Amino acid sequence: MFSNPPGAASDEPSHLVKAAALSVGDVWGAPVRYEKVGTWSPGKVAWIGRTSRILHVPRDYAGCDGFTVPLDGRCAGGRAVLDRRLPPGTSVSYVATYPVPAYLPAALGIRVASALGGSATAGLLLARAAGAVAAAALATGAVRLLRRGDRDDLPALAGASLTLTPMLVFTCSQVSGSGLELCSGLCFGAGLLRLARPATEDLSARTVWAWTGVSGLVLATARTLGPLWLAVVVGMVLVLRRGRLLEAVRTAPRAAATAIGCLLAGVAMSLAWQAAVEPHPQTSPAIAIANVPAAIRGLLGVADMYVGRFGWIQIRLPLLIVVGWLLLVAGLVAVARRLGTRRERIALACSVAAAFGATVFVAAYALLPTAPDFVMQARYVMPALSMVPLVAIDVLRGHASEARRRWGPRWDGLSAAVLASVIVAQAAAFGTNVAAQRAAWHPPLGWGVWECGVGIAALFGLGATTRVLRHGRVPSPAGARSPVLPGVVRGVQQ
């Protein structure tokens, strides 16, 4: 959040301009075209011209071309050439047609910074912080929904930690709408899976429905593909636990109706925005089919970016972290398949097929028709990818007693080892980004403070994992309920 240089994340300069415009109430803006953007192809330049707008922004954020960030109150010349001069007090964003709701936390951060007389750099950092807090609330909700307060929490949380990839953490710490999209997808999937399980005393049905409805609303409105991800997640849970999910609706009809109303409202808002504002690529089934081979060739890069690439996807993580993380996810699915029933094995296979299918579909039908040189990124399809470990976790939860009978103490030991590996990998990922960005940026308080903070957090996490393993269960946190939503208990962290 504070250690990454301003603008050193995919599209962050344009996301910042959009959030800054929202902070002063400019939602629509005026159309503008790019004549040239560095070495980009004409097709790629033409497409972002369709999504670009000139937006009114606070004074310190003015004069930006969508590729530069305002440092010290000014935007330096970038690599883009516009078809006109910018009016005073305006900047360009090539994500201006993206849905508004996911940018509201960042806009609030900028508004607060402006009210306090802060610079544009301070506004960017507060925008990152506000978005990260909102995303962390949803990620915390997902973890809370996966916990039951019993001895089987450790394997469930170990599996859940694999969904919080370095890429997800990095995305949530930057100005964009993707962080809320990724974490709301996790929370929505965890909520549906919790509803499809027998009720427990630690969370009421109303609380679970509340989390599910709110996270589903955020997911539907965060990005253009939100309604698609709602359908994909619901479909996966229905394949796995159709009867139990329908029973949960009958058990708490009012709470269920409210949550379903939130989902329908979110879908309606998303579709209305798409019809009124967003451009659509010239595509067809024939074009999509022709793009399938290229989409399949890009799957290896998507797998790499699922674990993490930083900056403008040019900073790669060490191969050991990427391969190790993917192997842990594959091992989670393999163990769940071994323990699961026939229906659960089918659901696991469907979740994997849906993840691959969604990736190929989005690349072939939505991305490549805009311009062949656009790079397919894992964050575009993360809600579908995240459901694979979530479905596996649910299967393992249902067969926990069998797992303990087969593997005894090794079951908890393996879970603790997974958690420890995730903690070490996250710290190593942070170190990789620091090594790449150290010369480009001096963060607030200096590098030493943030590096020490991450190191202490990693040691604390490893110590907590050891303590949990020693006592054989994850202790239930104590304290008052979180003000974000009912059912979140203080002390549960991302």
List the helices and strands and how they pair.
Elements (H helix, E strand, L loop, with lengths): L11 H12 L6 E2 L2 E4 L4 H10 L1 E4 L23 E3 L7 E4 L10 H12 L4 H27 L6 H9 L4 H7 L5 H18 L9 H18 L3 H26 L1 H24 L8 H13 L1 H9 L1 E2 L4 E2 L2 H21 L2 H26 L14 H17 L1 H8 L1 H29 L9 H25 L23
Helix pairs in contact: 1-3, 3-4, 4-7, 5-15, 5-17, 6-7, 7-8, 7-9, 7-15, 8-9, 8-10, 9-10, 9-14, 9-15, 11-14, 13-15, 14-15, 17-18
Descriptive account of the structure:
The protein contains 18 helices and seven strands. The chain has 494 residues and is mainly α. It has two domains: 12-100, no CATH class; 125-471, no CATH class. The strands form three sheets. Strands 1-3-5 form a three-stranded antiparallel beta sheet. Strands 2-4 form a two-stranded antiparallel sheet. Strands 6-7 form a two-stranded antiparallel sheet. A hairpin with a 4-residue loop joins strand 6 (309-310) and strand 7. The protein is globular. It starts with 11 loop residues before the first helix and ends in a 23-residue tail after the last helix.
